[in-house]
Amino acid sequence: MGAGPLKGGGKRALCLLWVASLLILSGCWDRKELNEIALIRAIGIDRTEDGQVEVTLLQAIPQRAEDAGGGEKTGGTQRVLSARSINIPEAKAKLQQKLGREIFTGHQEVVVFGERMARTGIREALDYMARQPQVRLDAVVFVSDSPKEIFTTIPLAEITASESLYKLARVEGYTEITVMRVLREVTGDAKSTVIPVVKKTGKKSLSLDGVAVFRGERMVDHLDRKSKEGLMWIRNEYTTGTVNTRIKGEKGYVAMKVDRTKTELIPKLKGKKPHMTIRMTSENVLTYNGTDMDLYFPSNMDRITREMEKQLRHRLRWTVERLQKDRADAFGFAEVFHRKYPKEWARMKKDWNQRVFPRMDVDVQVFVKIRWPGMTDS
């Protein structure tokens, strides 16, 4: 028997259910249409010579549907605006007036600190970003001479400068250096961090130029590309590198690509004095042999291996001594000691960067394995 028509009570119940569903399914009441917002992909923060804060925004310009098929783009793909004021909120308010649309940073992927801001301190900028729910804390961070100059440089084959910056970070393994990580490290045990440096190298080209070293909120050093490799290896963060060396008694050079590394930090207390052992193992690929050595002979491979270990030890040792001079524990030694010696850490932490870390004895051990010597015997 089929279901009959609803009686009066059933109709009332159905009506109440319909009304209740309208209350629950309220919809996206706070949704913003694309033509109502300014889509920000990158933020630059710098300090001017007179002490003001300069905020620069990179706004992505959505491509029109009729241009999406590969035709000529009209109106450009990005817009860069800057404003100066006594602090970041005031500068942002000025930018809001210029834009005429609501600033939306939900798709922001890059933050660039100007070097003047980095040298005087980034605490204000980090504090501001940490308090803004719309700002993405997983945005990749850079330092540059001028954020505005970086944002207005669009490399060939790229749509926006922010896209180019993110790709550079991905290639170099810097995508983990985010706003959140920088904030965590400058307020952590070591109170030190590193941020990649980006520079303009041509009319339409950008490149990375090592890393900026921070002690607390201030940039205290700039390591070039070769120097930063040792730092990143000690931090146990992936970075490739090439080591060139001469073999005693041989003419010409041997070159090797450092392909895989694993670093262990081993803390010890000798009496009350802290000591750190850096133990790095490296799998390398021989990329060039400019000598007359026959690589089929194990003894020759051993000679190359020992010399490469010596070169890597020297590079790591040099990096340690430089950061000890900077009084900036960007390696994270503090966290390692804190975990293993929590009671002793309470005594050391107050003077860690000022006295303990700079005077610490550090032993560097390197073990190299040549995974691929090449297809030829020379």
From TrEMBL:
Spore germination protein N-terminal domain boundaries: 30-199
One Gene Ontology biological process: spore germination
Residue span, Spore germination GerAC-like C-terminal domain: 209-373
InterPro entries associated with the record: GerAC_N (IPR057336), Spore_GerAC-like (IPR008844), Spore_GerAC-like_C (IPR046953), Spore_GerAC_C_sf (IPR038501)
Name of the protein: Spore germination protein KC
Short name of any one Pfam family annotated for the protein: Spore_GerAC
One annotated Gene Ontology cellular component of this protein: membrane
PROSITE patterns registered for this protein in UniProt: PROKAR_LIPOPROTEIN
Keywords: Germination, Lipoprotein, Membrane, Palmitate, Signal
Highest taxon of source: Bacteria
Localization per record: Membrane
Keyword tRNA-binding tagged: no
Family listed: Belongs to the GerABKC lipoprotein family.
Gene source species: Planifilum fulgidum
Membrane topology reported for the UniProt record: Lipid-anchor
PANTHER family (alphabetical): SPORE GERMINATION PROTEIN B3
Keyword Lipoprotein found: yes
